[in-house]
Amino acid sequence: MSQITTHILDTTRGKPAQGVTIVLHSQQADAWQELARGTTNQDGRVADLLPKEQLLPLGIYKLKFFTQEYFNQLATTTFYPFVEIVFAISSTEHYHVPLLLNPFGYSTYRGS
User: Fold this and answer.
1) Inter-residue long-range contacts of 87-95, CB under 8 Å, 24+ positions, other chains counted
2) pLDDT in tens, the chain (112 residues)
3) I need a surface site. Which of 48, 60, 77, 103 has the fewest CB within 10 A?
């Protein structure tokens, strides 16, 4: 399993959000560097965002979820064209960063 995992649940539909592009970035001074990219499957997950043996250095990271393309597929208006979740990696342990999404709101938490 990748050190960083995520999934998206569309809370309006009560279903996983399939077909969402997700990009992992690391903070480098005042800029962001893209590290990995994937698209959610039928379970709303990206199977292997990073190779399972790759451990990230301690630091600040963000997951960018391109939600506009998902809602376009559903012919649904959304207030958020993308969602960015910024978080700190402070150890080599596993980090699960889920996104609970609807057209006019979202929330996240540190999962397991």
Assistant:
1) 87/60, 87/61, 87/62, 87/63, 88/59, 88/60, 88/61, 89/56, 89/57, 89/58, 89/59, 89/60, 89/61, 90/58, 91/58, 92/3, 92/55, 94/1, 94/3, 94/4, 94/5, 95/3, 95/4, 95/5
2) 889 999 999 999 999 999 999 999 999 999 999 999 999 999 999 978 999 889 999 999 999 999 999 999 999 999 999 999 999 999 999 999 999 999 999 999 999 8
3) 77
